[in-house]
Structures are given as C-alpha cells and as structure tokens.
Amino acid sequence: QVVELISSAIGDLVQGIYYENSKSSEENCLTDDIGMSRWKEQVFLSHSALLAKSCQAAMELAKHSAEIQDMAFQYGKHMSMSHKLHSDLQPFVKESSTDTMAFSLNSAPAILHQEFLGREAWLEQIREPPHRCACVFQQLREAIKAGKGVTSAIDLCRCHGNRALAALERFPPSEARDALANIVYAVTRFP
Questions:
Q1: How far from 109 is each of 45, 86, 118, CA to CA, in Å?
Q2: Terminal-residue alpha carbon distance, the chain
Q3: What residue ranges define each of the domains in the chain, with the CATH number in brackets?
Q4: Which of 113, 145, 101, 123 is nearest to 31 (CA)?
Q5: Its GO biological process terms (predicted)?
Q6: Do 188 and 161 touch, CB atoms closer than 8 A?
C-alpha cells in the first residue's frame, strides 16, 4: 500500500511538472485561460500529491485506520495548497523599496485577477509593446495588486490552511500536532 501511494505520488509529480514545462515552452502560454479549477488541479499534481500521499503512507506504516489515513492525506493536501498560494502571493504582498520580484501570469493572484476582470480585459492588460519593458511588468503587477485577485488568493490560502487545521484536530494533542499546526500558521499569515 505504501509503495503504491508513493509511486502514484511520484507519477502525479512527474505529470504535473511535465505539463508545467510543456505549457511554459509554448508561444501562447501567457494568454492561456487556465482558470482556478485548472490551477488547483495542476498544483495538486505538481505540489500537493507528494505531501498528501506521504502523510497518508506514514499513517499506513503506523497501522492507523483508513479514517486517520484520510485525515493525514487531507492535512498534506491542504497544507501544500496553502504553501503554494503563499508562495504565489509573495510578489504581491512583500513591501520593500527594491521590490522587483517577478511573478507568473499563471500564479493564483493573476488567475483570480483575470477571472474577476474578464478574459477580454485581461488580454488587453497583458498586451505589451514589442520590446519587453520592466515598467509594463510593474504596471501589470500593480493592477493585479489593486484588483480582487490578491485578497481572494489570501482568502483561499487561509481557507486551505483552515482545512489542514481541521484535519489535524482529528489527531490527539501532542507536540507533533502543534508543530504541524505551526507550519500552517506560518504560511497563512500575511503582513
């Protein structure tokens, strides 16, 4: 059972990374309409499956019930989703004088911004002059920050964090459970 879980997690990871790499090499990847449901699917494959299935496998090795294994899976899945959202949000929430942090147009805040803005308005916003210019990139980043995408991504990050914490509640109180909860708190806290 453990070998099957880890094998399928590695398979998911390879599939997710292959998809990400093949999409980023395509010419029109900047204008893909991936949407949040596709984003979640992609993040599960390339980030969450390995942690979720590893947590489940650990409970299998410890001879816990299927219910406890599922709670461990849920913790790993939602913890990883929170972590990815936290990572995607950094270019939009970090404040510093030299804030030129790059971001992906396929990050959660950008996708949520696109969904709120509408497809046509989004395409107008990302069209650039023939030469790439940092000021256009900065303007796009500011437009995304000013829209609802960032606050919605923060809310989604906290939602996944709360689901991870709810899964932890099924485990008896311990230092290990507190440490796992602290990881969730760290990735759901924003300035």
A1: 19, 10, 14
A2: 42
A3: 1-188 (1.10.600.10)
A4: 123
A5: isoprenoid biosynthetic process; ubiquinone biosynthetic process
A6: yes
